[in-house]
Amino acid sequence: MSGVTDLGSRLLRAAIDHYRRGWSGRGPFRRCRCTFERLESCSVYGARIARERPAGEAIRLIARRLRRCRDLSVYAFPGEASPAGAGWGRDFDDVERASDPRAALLALDAELAGDGESPAARGAVVRAAARIATGAAPHRGPGELLVRDGWRVAETLERRRDIRRGAAILIAIAAATTVLALDAPLIGASGALTALGAIALARRNGLAAARVVRQGVLAGLELEVEPPITHPNESAPS
Asked: Which residues touch 225 (CB under 8 Å, ≥6 apart)?
């Protein structure tokens, strides 16, 4: 069993190394930017976790990190009146809405620590969450989370939504044509399932775009003076 586990770990490390050498920042990934790129990027995190943990656990943690890269995104909205106006991903919602932000920050930090995140990454996330909780713009620069242009993110999500909707329609037409012309119900059923998957992804993109746009509109309605930072847990955790 250990031999199978070792083989899985080696294959996982090889796959990550292949991505980092040949695909990162190139081809379909040329426009992709990592929320943690100024700290420990997702591929660097994945390579480290693949060395430190068994293959099955490493794959689970890498999948969680990739989701976190999206849901811990931070956005600014250039052109809006408020320098404090910002948007954020879903993983910051619990802190932003919490009646006890300090407890929510500690819970978020504990979750990150449990997933093997580095102290630097944990500190950057906690600092960003603390500023979101107080209504302040997130820090920029080295050692902080990447701050994306919210309007461009919304445009990208809307474009992906439209592409996936179009793909779903084409797949559905192809599946229906196959069933009618070749009497192949299994092929038609697989095509229908693929189309439904594309529709689900399109819906997710649409909801995410609407969320970012809504945050941008609210940013334009905020006061022009950035609120002071008073949260007791803004510094990086030890």
From this structure: 84
Closest CA to 232 of 129, 84, 137, 116: 129
Residue 234 — pLDDT band, cuts 50, 70, 90? very low
Local structure of 12: helix, strand or coil:
helix
How far is residue 197's CA from residue 226's CA, in Å, rounded to a whole number?
42
- For the chain, the structural domain boundaries read 1-25+33-70, 151-219
In sequence order, which residues have a C-beta less than 8 Å from that of residue 4 and are 6 or more positions away? none
Query: Measuring CA to CA, which residue among 209, 202, 206, 203 is closest to residue 151?
Result: 209
Mean pLDDT of the chain: 76
pTM of this prediction? Answer: 0.71
Question: Model confidence over 46-58: pLDDT tens digits?
Answer: 999 988 888 889 9
224 in Cβ contact with 81 (< 8 Å): yes
- Helix or strand (DSSP H, E) at 60: helix 55-71
Buried b (16+ CB within 10 A) or exposed e, 60-76: ebbeebeebbeebbbbb
HSE-up of 26 (CA within 13 Å, CB side)? Answer: 7
Reported as a single tens digit per residue, the pLDDT across 154-188 is 777 787 788 877 887 877 777 777 666 666 666 66
Q: What angle do CA 171, 175, 178 make, to 5 degrees?
A: 140
CA separation for the pair 171, 11 (Å, rounded): 33
End-to-end Cα, the chain, rounded Å: 38
Query: Residue length, the chain?
Result: 238
